[in-house]
Amino acid sequence: MVSVLVVNDQSLQRHALRLLLTAEPDLTVVGEATGGNEAVRACTVLRPDVVLMDSHLSRTDSLDTIRRVARPSTLPGTPEPARAEGRTPRVLVLTAAGREGYAYAALRAGAGGYLDNDATPEELTAAIRIVAAGDAVITPGLTRALIDTVRQQRTTDRRTTDRRHRASGLDTLTGREHDVLIAVASGWSNAEIAERLTIAPTTVKTHVSNILAKIGARARVQAVAFAYESGLIRPAA
Q1: Which domain holds residue 184?
Q2: List of E strands, 24-161
Q3: For 161-210, how does the pLDDT look when each residue is reduced to its tens digit (9 = 90+)?
Q4: In 10 A of CB 5, how many CB atoms?
Q5: Residue 33 counted as domain residue
Q6: Quick one: which H or E segment has residue 6?
Q7: b/e per residue, 73-86, with b = 16+ CB within 10 A?
Q8: Among 9, 53, 91, 220, which residue has the fewest nearby CB atoms (within 10 Å)?
C-alpha cells in the first residue's frame, strides 16, 4: 500500500484528489496540507511514501518545501530511528504545463517526478506508483528544458567545466556504473538495463544505489540531470 500526503491550497482539489486516489486499491491518502510548513509537519508525523504537491505555492516556498521534505536531515523533529530507516517521502510535483523551468528547479531540489496537472487519472496514479518505487517521472517537455539548460551551460569556460566535472563524482564511477548511468539517463527501466547489459536485475539495483551515493543524488531523476550536466550524455543538436 502506497501512502500519499496531498498538498494543495484549494479544498475542492484536495477533496477531488482524495476521492481519486482512495478509489485505487493500492493507494491511500494519509493526510492533507495546504502549505509548505504544514506539509513538512505532516511528513514528520505521518511519514507518507509520496507527497503529491501542487505548485500553487510560491516558487521559493515550494522549492524550500521540497528540500525539507525530500532530505531527512532537514526535517525538524524527525526522530533518529525514522531517519535511520531511510523512509524519506518521495515528492511528485503536479503543475501547469509550460513551467518546465520551475519543474527542473523542483527536481534539483529533490523532487522525484513532475507531472502536468492536465494529466489523466490513470497517468497520475501510475506516476505515484513509479515515484513510490524510487523511479523518476519526467515529461518530454522537461527533458527538452533540461537539454536547453545544458546547452546554455556549454557557454562557460571549458576548463572551469572540467574542474567541476572532476569534483562532481563522475570520475569515481566504475566502467559498468558509467554504462548503467547512461542507461538510466536514456530512460531505461531496471529490467531493460538488466536485459541490454546482460546482468541481473538485483545487480542493476546495486549499481544504481552506488551511483546515487557517489554523485550525491537521492533519486534517479537527479542522476539523469547529473548525466547531462557532467557531459556523460550529449544533447542532440
Answers
A1: 155-229
A2: 27-33, 50-54, 90-95, 113-116
A3: 444 544 457 788 999 999 999 888 877 888 889 999 999 989 999 999 89
A4: 25
A5: yes
A6: strand 2-7
A7: eebeebeeeeeeee
A8: 9
